[in-house]
Amino acid sequence: MKKHSLCHILPGGSQKFINSHLYEIESALEKVKRIDGWLSFDDAVSFYLLLKIQKDFSISGTVLEIGVYRGKSAIYIAQLLDPDERFFCCDIFEGETEILNSLEIEESYPSLSRRSFEENFMENLGYLPDIFQLTSGVFWSELNDILFRMIHIDGSHLYEIVKNDLISATKFIQPSTGIIVVDDFRAQHTVGVSLAVWETIISMKLRPIVITSAKIYLVKPEFNLDLQYFSDFLGLQKIDYAIEEILGNKVIRIKNTTDINLYKNRSLIKDWIPPILVNFLQAQKSVTKFRIFLANFAKSTLRPSRKPFSAALFSKIKDRD
Q1: Residues 6+ apart with CB under 8 A from 77
Q2: What's the rounded Cα separation, in Å, for the pair 102 and 108?
Q3: I want to staple 228 with a disulfide (CB 3.0 to 4.6 A). Which of 5, 200, 210, 311 is the partner?
Q4: Residue 64 φ then ψ, to 5°
Q5: What CA–CA distance (Å, rounded) separates 136 from 56?
Q6: What is the pTM of this model?
Q7: Are 77 and 87 in contact, with CB atoms under 8 Å apart?
């Protein structure tokens, strides 16, 4: 396996090479910056570099994203693929699913719809990917004779579903060159994702190669692509990172501060206030009134270290009882 690093490719011309890559990354991000969703600059760089490393080693194939919401990360990734490569997108959208998964979707993604995803994709790229409107469990069960070069898991946060996604991904990823990306592996509200991810790592089914503030990038034990290219880019671009060791494996941990203009974080506002009210408040012109409302709301309603149920969720749970 050849050694692949930026300095080796362009001795003395590394910065010019870096600038050309940054332009590609920023151009791809420009198309998705107004789309509602979550994508940090660190992950935009990570997706770009890992897909490029695969391409430079003549690795091609279909890419899969599970959980597309309105298409922010999907549209970004699609721009990095070759014209002859297929892109599979799997999401339940407005379809039926398990009761707990349905409750999570209603609470976290009230505006989830296939129409909004398709409109965003068409408007930005002029075509549609292969769309599978069904649960990931059904999707995996109907797959055969395909190995993906990258799988981005950004769907349900429920442990059982994430675990099945990971187990299935190990069966349908290219063994020595494929990469599995998992979102929300360390967020406070996604404990199920964390448990499923670390359980898979500890069992040695997958090993981590890159960690960012939002995502973890995993490969099978037999993965053999040289990642020197990745760390070279971070170093030359002065992106803060460290090399950690996890279960005997070296992992690149990006410590760079997330760009707030490119990454829409889950805020306390959205965690505590019903989405329809958030949209109304954010549309108001008066910032002062908005802040006064939040202060009064916090004093009169919120209890420390405890998140109240929304009325809709409480009524659903009560009905089930």
Answers
A1: 47, 51, 63, 65, 87, 150, 152
A2: 10
A3: 5
A4: -125, 140
A5: 30
A6: 0.74
A7: yes
